[in-house]
Every structure is written in structure tokens, then in C-alpha cells.
Specification:
By secondary structure, the protein is an alpha/beta fold. The protein has one domain: Rossmann fold (3-Layer(aba) Sandwich). The protein contains eight helices and ten strands. Strand 3, helix 2 and strand 4 form a beta-alpha-beta unit. The longest helix has 13 residues. It starts with a strand and ends with a strand. One of its GO terms (cellular component) is eRF1 methyltransferase complex.
Length: about 230
């Protein structure tokens, strides 16, 4: 099995990779390098994939539950935790996978891109790893609805917003129930399925639904990392 080493903040993490499981992407690695986790915190990693966020949190001394709709992903995350000398509890299922607990930190790098139909055909079953629906934020909006039941007054939820989705809409929805703090903004090269169908995405950008820009001959999108806390009910 192939392995890859990653530097996440002060941690060096080695992951085994499996072609059946989503591997850390440039977006995910940028996000991972912005997340503050403290020892003793209770953390949930939603959509854990190969386990990069869960392992990092456990290496920081947190108690971690990692969930994924893929049993292969949950199994790989548990194995990668042991590979790095920590333990991560795992569960197979969507979002909180049946957990009724509250968490100090919620992490979730969910599929959050608009994928045009032609690309969807080429991607086949792997489309679920990136496709966020018509506006690119279907799963993110579902998480925003479910998360408050798993948060206490000092819980923090860290989310990446990808500008290949209607990120303005995501922010407007988030601000209804959460205090929103901007943690970081990054520029990342647009993926090939974007540049191969540039006309489609430039129309979306022109309409203000996404952000796509060109710099020194290279097309880019942005990633915004935000921190969400519950608004006071008083």
C-alpha cells in the first residue's frame, strides 16, 4: 500500500493511501494547516477520508471521533491513527453518524464544488468526493442545520469554503445562527475539470456564483477557512 508523509503545522504525519478512499487534496491540506486543536478537546472529523484531520487532532492530544459514509474510509482512518501512534474512534455514516454527543471542535471538509454534467460522467463514482450539488454547497448547508445540536456555548466549528461553490450563499446561511470569524484565505490552482470546461465556469463567475481568477497564466480559485460559534440565545 502506498504511503505519503505530510507536514501539518508542527506535526509530521504518515498516511497509508487507498485508491478507494479520498486522499488529502491541496484544499484539505491548506485547511488542516489553519485548524487550532488543544490537548483534551473533544473533536469530531466529519467525512474523514484518509484521516489527515483526525490524526492531526489526536496527535495534538484531543479525543477524536472520525465519521465517513465510506466504511473503507473509516477503516483506513483508524489504521492511519495507529500508524501515527494515536487512537481515533470511527463510525460509518453521514455527518455525526448517530452520535448524540456535543463536541468542543467540529471539523468537516465536505464536497463543495459545482461539477458540470460532462465532468460528472468522466468522474463516475468518484464524483461524490467533490460534487456539492447545484450550488456546490448542499452538504455544507445540511451540516449547518445539524451542527448546533452537537455544540455547546464554547464549541468551535471550522469549515473551508471553496469558491467553486456559491460561497456567498453559504456565508449568509451560516451568519443566521453562528458567529463567523475569518481564519485564513488561500489561492489554489483550479482543478483540471474546471480548466477543461472553462466557459461553463466563467459564466458562473460572471454571474457572481463562484470566484475564478487568472494570475500569471494560471487559473485559481480561493479557499476561505472560517470559525463558527453559536450565537448567544440571551
Amino acid at each position: 500500500m502506498q504511503t505519503q508523509t505530510y507536514q501539518i503545522q508542527q506535526q509530521t504525519i504518515e498516511l497509508a493511501l487507498d485508491e478507494r478512499v479520498f486522499a488529502p487534496s491541496a484544499h484539505g491540506l491548506y485547511y488542516a494547516n489553519q485548524i487550532p486543536i488543544a490537548a483534551g478537546e473533544r473533536v469530531i472529523d466529519i467525512g474523514c477520508g484518509s484521516g489527515i484531520f483526525a490524526v492531526y487532532a489526536a496527535r495534538q492530544g484531543a479525543s477524536v471521533l472520525a465519521t465517513d459514509i465510506s466504511a473503507d474510509a473509516a477503516e483506513l482512518t483508524a489504521a492511519n491513527a495507529l500508524r501515527n501512534g494515536v487512537q481515533v474512534d470511527t463510525a460509518t455514516g453521514g455527518f455525526f453518524a448517530g452520535s448524540e454527543a456535543t463536541y468542543d471542535v467540529i471539523l468537516a471538509n465536505l464536497p463543495q464544488e459545482i461539477v458540470m454534467p460532462d465532468s460528472a460522467v468522466l468522474l463516475g463514482e468518484r464524483i461524490s468526493e467533490i460534487d456539492g450539488g447545484l450550488r456546490g454547497n448542499d452538504l455544507l448547508l445540511q451540516l449547518l442545520e445539524q451542527a448546533p445540536a452537537h455544540m455547546h456555548e464554547t464549541s468551535r466549528m471550522y469549515l473551508p469554503l471553496h469558491t467553486l461553490s456559491d460561497y456567498h450563499h453559504s456565508l449568509r446561511v451560516a451568519m443566521q445562527d453562528f458567529n463567523v470569524r475569518l481564519v485564513a484565505i488561500g489561492d489554489l490552482p483550479a482543478k483540471s475539470f474546471v480548466t477543461d470546461h472553462l466557459g461553463f465556469y466563467l459564466e458562473l463567475a460572471e454571474a457572481g456564483a463562484i470566484r475564478l481568477f487568472k494570475h500569471q497564466g494560471q487559473w485559481y480559485t480561493n479557499i476561505y477557512v472560517i470559525e463558527l460559534t453559536l450565537k448567544s440565545t440571551e
